[in-house]
Amino acid sequence: MPTIPSIEFMAAKVQETARDKVARAKNMAFAFDIDGVLVHGDRLIPEGKKVLEILNGDNELGMKIPHIFLTNGSGKHEADRCSQLSAILGSPVSTKQFIQSHTPMSALAKYYRTVLVVGGEGFRCREISEIYGFKDVVIPNDIVAWDETIAPYKVFGPWERAAAKPRDFSKCCIEAIMVFSDSRDYATDYQIIMDLLRSENGRLGTISKDPTSQAIPIYFSQGDLLCPTEHPVPRMSQGTFRLGLEAMYKAVTGVELKRTIYGKPERATYAYAEDVLTSWMENIYTEKSLPEHIYMIGDNPESDIAGGNLYGWNTCLVQTGVHTDDENDKKNPATMGLFPNVLHAVESCMRKHLGGDFKFEFDVMTHTFTSADMVAPAKGRASRRNRHGSISMKTAQNGTGNKGSSGKVSKERRSTRGGGTWSGSSATNDVRERYYNT
Length: 438
Description:
Elements: H1 7-16, H2 19-25, E1 28-32, E2 39-40, E3 43-44, H3 46-55, E4 67-70, H4 78-89, E5 98-99, E6 114-118, H5 124-132, E7 136-138, H6 140-146, H7 158-163, E8 176-179, H8 186-197, H9 211-214, E9 218-220, E10 226-227, E11 235-236, H10 238-253, E12 260-261, H11 267-285, E13 293-298, H12 301-310, E14 314-318, E15 338-339, H13 342-354, H14 424-436
């Protein structure tokens, strides 16, 4: 029986003859904002799917290009959000390459025991906080269930009451406030936060004589004023909630609110992202190193671009989200320029770094292999990465590929696109055609 080369083998052969280009590819990386760049809510931005196919191996080198996801999104656990994105984008998204705005806040669990967690749908942020390691998590509904007069304008439904965990909050101290996600009830959340900020060391029902010395700390997971959604006009985000709270606190106490903000464009978030990227490099290449050339691709000049610029990354601004103008942002201009979508941005960066003729598909028909290059099919062989991050493929055992009437392999089947994991149906059948009919 004739033997055929695996995709992994062919990619490795290509990489051996292009070692300089491989080294340059491993010295670049992408950091993607998500909403307004790859998706709008639950709706795919079509160019995002193709971008991830390219970066997951459908390129002329057949190798993975390092990339991470850096979003100010929040309100879901990282595993849930990655599963959702994988389904929308058609490519695997790992928690090891994914950073939400509240991901770095998990480190605070070792400093605080009893915390108020604000924002998000239902009780989801309580669950996330507990997974992060916070021992005693309180949410606003717990407090309302204890004393409904604390929020006079709230309509407290039976399902909320049933899921709440009330206690006597006049006898316990809340040590910190964590705004994990966008508030779903501004009036109630504002009232409870203001009560705690003005209290004596986080004990409800008290008012401190000196709010500056006795105020408990408050943390915000991000500072975006606007967020692109499926609505045609971007919606208000956590940054507007914070600005309103700061204005209220200043008006009532006469002093500025001291707070800590995570997310883009804060430097701490970009430092955390570099740690994640270094670990992801080890995951795909078994080399723990940080690429010298990192490209931040985002739609929001105030967060994505400003933060990337301040941290010394290359930046690309796309027109599919918050920024829709036909010119680069004047206050926070992207260093690589303005692009209509994420695909244009990625192709431009890769051609600049890897050469103007770099191809964005791995075409098995362009490579010639001798009989000495053949490898026997291995039924059921599991996928594995080689040292360049390219993906092996289970060798197809059935089928002879698709031919047109002329006997040539159809043009549509000449490249392999499996969204980061090589699919056996198209690429292997092309190879079978090549070697069974010569």
